[in-house]
Structures are given as C-alpha cells and as structure tokens.
Write a structure and sequence with these properties.
Chain A has 114 residues and is mainly β. Chain A has no helices and 12 strands. The chains are: A mainly beta (114), B mainly beta (116).
C-alpha cells in the first residue's frame, strides 16, 4: 500500500528566506503527486500537481516542486517566503491504477518570522 | 460563484444520535469525496464518488455512509456517531479524477463535529 511521509511537522523560517518542505512517498507502482495548502480556518487549495512529463512543476504563489522517482520524493520549494505563506502544507499521492483514492501526508506547518 | 458548500459548519451532538452533513457543489463536477482531518494525521479519505450512484470506500469508511443520488450533492451520514468520530470534516469535488485527466480538487470550508 502506498504511504506519504512529510518529514517535518513544523518549519519556522524568516521572511524572504528560501524554504523547502520535504515529502517522500512509498509505492511499488507509478503515482500522481500533489501539494495542497491550508490557510488558518479554511479548506485546502491545490498548489501544484505532478501527473506526467517534466519533473519540475510550478504552482501558484511562486511555489515549485520536483519529482524525483529514484528517491521517491516530491519536495516543495519557494525561493523567498512572505508572511502570507504562513499555513499548513499537505503532500498527497494517488495511484495510476486508482487515481480516485488519495493518501495525504500528516502536514507541515510553515511559520514565517518577520 | 463556483463553490463547495457544507452544512452545518459546526455541530455538537451526543453518542448514537444519527446525523447528516450535507455537501453540495455548483460546478457540475463528476467526482466528490469526503475527508476527515485530525491533528498529526493529516487528511484521511472516508468515501468518494466517481459519479451519480457510484461510490467507493476510502481509507477510513467505518461508521460512515454516503449516497450520490444527484450529481451536485454528496451527503455524509453518521448512523450512530461515537466520540472517536469527533473531527474536522471536508468535502471536495473535482471535474475528473481519472489518471492523466485528474483535475483540481476544490474543498469546502469544513464541518467541525464534536460527539459527546
């Protein structure tokens, strides 16, 4: 069965610093990968997704992620964060064979210090 | 405005009292899904539906029921709620969830349920 591990439950960074949120997945078959963001007291929004093609995926709000099949990773990056990026970020995976069933990671809380 | 709505937003109930949380989308989406969010566990999928009259279990379906009689609605039913179902529940919809045709999932605002 597939699983998703977000290695850091909390990541504090200073404003305008770069950030990387780590995500590793476990699956014996090919997968689709997603990053979602949840702002305080809101539902989730899709940041970006990898379905096929280029392994570097660009999303909204200046975020990007790179799919690394050999390391089974899909880390999220932003070169310069803003206070407004304070949120919880979730990595998610679904299988090629069963794309409707989605597994989420436990989340990483990103806190930005001025 | 394109949106997913859930009602109620907050609910406190007692063990064993049947309840329904409604979910409705106005985007003509085929796919709808229910999740629960618990601290340290992220979101876990309860049930999903590929289309009208087509539903399937997610990872944590025990204690829940769903139905999809109309395309826009996907209610979550707790026949006999228990305290371990206290959680934050999200409904989501997507035009497609079919491999390379996978589209963005749009989430509702959430329903915070407390079962005493």
């Amino acid at each position: 069965a597939q699983s998703v591990t977000q290695l850091d439950s909390q990541v504090p960074v200073f404003e305008e610093a770069p950030v990387e949120l780590r995500c590793n997945y476990s699956s014996s078959v090919s997968v689709y990968l997603f990053w979602y963001v949840q702002y305080p007291n809101q539902g989730l929004q899709l940041l970006l997704k990898y379905l096929s093609g280029s392994t570097l995926v660009k999303g909204i709000n200046g975020f990007e992620a790179e799919f690394n099949k050999s390391q089974t990773s899909f880390h999220l990056r932003k070169p310069s964060v803003h206070i407004s990026d304070t949120a919880e970020y979730f990595c998610a995976v679904s299988l090629y064979s069963s794309a409707s069933k989605i597994i989420f990671g436990s989340g990483t809380r990103l806190s930005i210090r001025p | 405005e394109a949106q997913v709505t859930q009602n109620p937003r907050y609910l406190i109930t007692v063990t064993g009292k049947k309840l329904t949380v409604t979910c409705s989308q106005n985007m003509n989406h085929e796919y709808m899904s229910w999740y629960r969010q618990d601290p340290g566990l992220g979101l876990r999928q309860i049930y999903y539906s590929m289309n009208v009259e087509v539903t399937d279990k997610g990872d944590v379906p025990e204690g829940y029921k769903v139905s999809r009689k109309e395309k826009r609605n996907f209610p979550l039913i707790l026949e006999s709620p228990s305290p371990n179902q206290t959680s934050l529940y999200f409904c989501a919809s997507s035009l497609w969830m079919k491999g390379l045709r996978t589209d963005t999932q749009y989430f509702g605002p959430g329903t915070r349920l407390t079962v005493l």
